[in-house]
Amino acid sequence: KSYQVAVVGATGAVGNLMVRVLEERGFPVKDLRLLASFRSVGKTLSYKGGCIPVEELKEDSFKGVEIALFSAGGSVSKKFAPIAAAAGCVVIDNSSAFRMDPNVPLVVPEVNPDALVKGPGIIANPNCSTIQMVVALKPIYDAVGIKRIVVTTFQAVSGTGKRAIEELRNQVEALVQGKEPKMEIYPRQIAFNCFPHIGAFLENGYTEEEMKMVNETRKIFNDPNIGVCATTVRVPVYYGHSEAVNIETKAPISVERVRELLSQAPGVRVVDDPANLCYPVPLDAAGKDETLVGRIRLDPSVENGLAMWVVADNIRKGAASNAVQIAETMMARNLL
Ligand code: A2P
């Protein structure tokens, strides 16, 4: 069987990649509908050697569509995802709009595929930083349990979208020419800088992005007691989020055993031979769907402590590829 698929936000950084990933992975698409704002009407995108026109997203855009991948921001999802679901679509939504809704599954196929239910309805794609962290931690969680996670992220600008990628490029160009850098998207200069400010600051002193990592990790592991303390930092990198992840496991586990478990884990590649300059970096993760894990070592400052470095392409595994993998998993499990 092949499916009628729509991509909402098809002209954006993630939406465009969703189209590429559908093509690359050979998802059985019968017909592909590309939706964006009125600003994109007249544009076309290439797909399997042909050209598909971009249409304006409207309430009646989902007639006959079976799977809709959304990546056009929270407000578009809030309005249109329920409309698409009511029209009979399985909606896989990359925004944060429905992630914490108790009736909406929040899914990383390598981690909690059993949370998927037979469509139509909305399925949420987790936050990019959460996805790569839980992919790397799942084998350890299953083996010995995890009590607490302390994570610091180094997040690429592509997560903010196309205009943020341009802002970094423009600021770098301006600065090397001795000109004043323009700031439109980010609160602080991103070129040659970094700032611990992703999403708005909340009353508890954390940012929205940090609390997403706390709440989504608990929901995905179905473990309200797991402790998570996150510091999320934007860095001048185009593609690929890095994370320093420090965990306290419930039972002891050796570094060798962690390496062995991670080498067998789906979606993970261990890159851990520092003496030969072999550790994950965003430039190596970019363009790949795997989560790279390295610098695996004991944390002697606490009982059962482990430290590691986790890198993945934030708009692939962190967004577009995870969304397409959700569709593939539903297809394989007869849930579409
Ligand atoms: P458009 O290109 O027509 O503005 P990014 O995350 O890279 O900034 O991309 C955002 C995506 O969401 C784009 O495809 C953008 O379309 C789309 N989008 C933004 N606002 C709307 C809207 N109100 N209706 C439909 N699509 C929208």
Automatic annotation (TrEMBL):
Pfam families: Semialdhyde_dh, Semialdhyde_dhC. Residues 4-119 form the Semialdehyde dehydrogenase NAD-binding domain. Pathway: Amino-acid biosynthesis; L-methionine biosynthesis via de novo pathway; L-homoserine from L-aspartate: step 2/3; Amino-acid biosynthesis; L-threonine biosynthesis; L-threonine from L-aspartate: step 2/5; Amino-acid biosynthesis; L-lysine biosynthesis via DAP pathway; (S)-tetrahydrodipicolinate from L-aspartate: step 2/4. Transmembrane segments: none annotated. Substrate binds at residues 155, 208, 234. Phosphate binds at residue 99. InterPro entries: Asp_semialdehyde_DH (IPR012080), Asp_semialdehyde_DH_beta (IPR005986), NAD(P)-bd_dom_sf (IPR036291), Semialdehyde_DH_NAD-bd (IPR000534), Semialdhyde_DH_dimer_dom (IPR012280). GO terms for biological process: 'de novo' L-methionine biosynthetic process; diaminopimelate biosynthetic process; isoleucine biosynthetic process; lysine biosynthetic process via diaminopimelate; threonine biosynthetic process. Homodimer. Catalyzes the NADPH-dependent formation of L-aspartate-semialdehyde (L-ASA) by the reductive dephosphorylation of L-aspartyl-4-phosphate. Belongs to the aspartate-semialdehyde dehydrogenase family. This is Aspartate-semialdehyde dehydrogenase. It comes from Desulforhabdus amnigena.
